[in-house]
Amino acid sequence: MAFGLKGAALRLLGNASPGLFTLFLLLIFRVPFTDSNAGMYIPLFSLIFTYYFRVHFPQSGRLWFIFILGLLEDFLSGGYLGLTPLILLLISALFERQRRIFLQGSFVTEIFIFLFFSLAVSVLYWILTSFIEAQFIPGLPFFIQGLITALVFPLYVFLIGRINKRFSR
User: Fold this and answer.
1) Distance between CA atoms of 99 and 108, rounded to whole angstroms?
2) Residue 163's CB: how many other CB atoms inside 10 A?
């Protein structure tokens, strides 16, 4: 009986590990900075999680968790509450509808697809933030954040793969 409970606990931890890892990264990287613009150069871990898990493991990337990650990212970054969850849920819907297209390529192709989405999301953030502020905001920090997010994507996928392999033994 104890082995069954231990196995169930390890499976539960294995299923929760990608979300917990993403939450950990989000909390560690979003420490308060003295420069208010430094937060713009932190990768959007919630976007990486949303892309990877809504495309590859839709049962693991739950919408409620994506919503909470987005709210937490907005809260910790000082952004407009609700903007990130809105964008992430829209992106999730797109990934669900076009999932087969995203699964057809190699990993290098996937990196370029994510680069495109990361930059597209950065442009969307920039447009919506400028609209909310009712003034033109320089777009370069948004573009750089999109590039940094895309550069972190392969490392994130590698680490998540290692974590999942560790718990699936």
Assistant:
1) 17
2) 15
